[in-house]
Amino acid sequence: xxxxxxxxxxxxxxxxxIYGEDGLAGTFTEMNExxxxxxxxxVEYVFGTCWSQPLLDNRTREMMIxxxxxxxxLTGEVEIHSRGLLxxxxxxxxxxxxxxSLCPYIGFPKTNHxxxxxxxxxxxxxxxx
Length: 129
Description:
Helices cover about 75% and strands about 0% of the residues. It has about 130 residues and is mainly α. The longest helix is centred in the C-terminal third of the chain and has 20 residues, at about 110-125. The termini are far apart. The mean pLDDT is about 90.
């Protein structure tokens, strides 16, 4: 494990505005209690290495993740990363349009599930949750 990458990963998670002030909120708190080495590896590699690459901004990364998650029908991931997109300045209308644009590639059922997840994200952001 690398402490510098871990701290960089926490900083990235905090900057997205969806993981709480400590960068470990939500289901991560539960996972961290169950398997701390696993969550540390996620923070260090996913956020401290992959998300810290210099060429893409976080908004672009979030868009890619929403598309990949929608294609795999991972609605929890679509929801949380949709919230990240909204926190990065994407409008609800742009989010919906982006997901609808995936339909020819992922099919109607997965698109419908992703739209429902995006709706939950939009509602939570509007409510300040």
